[in-house]
Amino acid sequence: MPYYLTMFLLGGLGLVLEATLFSQFTIAGVKPDLLLILIIFNCLFQDSSKGGFFGFFLGLFEDLYLGSYIGMNALTKGLTSFLGSRLLQGAFRENLLVPVIAIFLGSMFNGMMIVFLGKLVGLNWGWNLFYWKVLPLAIYNTCLVPFVYSGYYHWVDQDPEQQSL
Amino acid sequence: MTRKQKFMVSLVLIAVLFFTFKLMFFTGMGGTTALPLGGAVREILAPLQKGITLITTALKNVPVYFKDNRFLQQQNKEMAEKIVRLEEEVYALKEQELENQRLLLLLQYKEEKSGNYDLAMARVIGRNHANWYETLLVDQGSKQGIWPGMVVVNHDGLIGRVIAVTKNTAEVLLILDREGAVGARIFENRHTPGVVVGTSNSQYLQMIHLPHDLPIEPNQTVVTSGLSGVYPPGIRIGKVIEVLPEPGGLMKRATLKPFVDFFRLEEVFIIKQVKIPEEQVAPQEEVRAEDTLAGFGGEK
What we know:
heterodimer, A: mainly alpha, 7 helices, globular, B: alpha+beta, Thrombin, subunit H, 6-stranded antiparallel barrel, 3 helices
């Protein structure tokens, strides 16, 4: 199965899991952003343009699913993925610390972008969302990395062709 | 990629990003501008979402089960105690109901026999103080005008007679006891005398010293004859269930099943005074039975 088709299917599954399973496991009022984790994992294996496109379209997919402020996740995830791919070029991705830090920083950046765009479109959001949403979300996402990165890494690593996509 | 191609790609990219940016402003929360594509995505994912929600809900109940376990145990304990209390109440109510039924029968009996006897009701407070005698202890004694020799009955029939009294208790010798012989006769054949005594099987009585030619059959009723001078005549004793010849063949005896359930006695009547023996107010059927007797050649 083509790599990006699988990734999109995983993204769809992630959306459903966020809406169902992880609604029961909220911590500090937040649930993990599984699509963002998937996007940042992808950054570790792709260049900036492919990473950016993937982030953009998966974000758009999420926007379409959510049905409001379409484009917000597409832009933030696209930009996060683009920058992430650039910064993570040549990173030692075998080390678990790399995806852990990447997820934490990527989640923080993505969260800040969301807050910024939310304020831009006129939502009544304050910057204190950083403490109430962005930081807890980044920590929650980071905590999940040790459980899922190994599977993702071995899946991608066993088929070198997928890395060239 | 040529420089021109790169320029075109960048141009398209900027256009897409700009379009996306503008789209974000037109698709606010609760707006109706959601693209049809969004609805399609939701429709596709809905069955999966429904399935996972079902599983999640089921899994969510697992910790709730453990969490509620202690509460349920406590509740279970309380319910068990409550059930015991309620069962006790139910038993008490049933007991009262049975007592009411018994008392109603006794009351009816008392009213029915008020023309024949002066009755005093007594409660059974003990029985068979010794293994060798069939006795009852009742809660009425000399203080209430009870004396030895008084006959004890209930609505079913004859029970026995008082053999000893204290101030507030009386000991009753049951007709089941081998010492408690009663002069009796067949109700349907009133001139057939006999003696009813207890047997070694305390559930039954036997009527002895019956002439071998007397017409006595199963299902006939045996009542007191009054010949002994202790028991008033006409009190029901039991029903004939079997007639057997006595050794020697000159006499025969009958096995009786008493009308009174001696093992469930709780209230009894003590006949303090006999006004009119029951025999004298016997129903008309009894007369017919007497007429029939002539045909059998029964002795007087």
